[in-house]
Amino acid sequence: MTAETRYASSPAAVQRWNTEETRNELLIDKLFEKDNVRLVYSHYDRFITGGIMPVAGPVKLEAPDQLKAVYFLERRELGIINVGGAGTVTVDGEAFEIAYKEALYVGRGKQEVLFSSKDAGSPAKFYLNSTPAHKEFPTRHVTRKDAEVVTLGAMETSNHRTINKLIVSTVLPTCQLQMGMTELKTGSVWNTMPAHTHDRRMEVYFYFEVPQGQSVCHFWGQPQETRHIWMQNEQAVISPPWSVHSGAGTSNYTFIWGMAGENLDYGDMDVCAIPDLR
Q: I need a surface site. Which of 52, 241, 248, 265 has the fewest CB within 10 A?
């Protein structure tokens, strides 16, 4: 297991960051490593971002030292979305087959979570988000058909996109974790525009399906003092609750969003008009 810690920072503190400092603090540049668990523990809402790519055999999710827990889900809930080949997640002996772009929610109290791939030549890539939990909710497999789907934007504004709400309160009960997947249509590049903040929640974006040789420019910071981070395929970025979180790619792409914090209201956001961004 590889587990690192990232600390929270104020808007005043980040004004002094250079490019390297920004990337070190917010960018998660590697999530998938053969037969290893990679985790990043953020002090923003104690949010954990991770990746597991089982190849040689099943990989068990253990509790990192940061949790001081006997097992990973002793005081947490877990969201999983598969962004690789077909795979299986086994939760306390119950197996769930998770296809590409399908999700699994695992509630607090489950003691053993095992990850495996159907084909070592095309391994599963399990993207993980985890947050503290105050009660147990049932484990549930969420397929594309189960998702709440919303289409927003337009080709004329380069942000025609489909939002798949997978692990949200309108689909299943959770303590605070919310996850979904936004797919940009061909010819569209902007996500989450108009930009917004939600001081009640932090968020992590994971970009994938970024074509070879292309990149995504992720925008963050206060609305009147934005900054950017250039990102590659299968990288994630931490967004503080006081920060906007938006991006534009040199091609269309897909990204997974995960949130945690004060409430479960997906529409709770403070929108910033596009002409007001600085």
A: 265
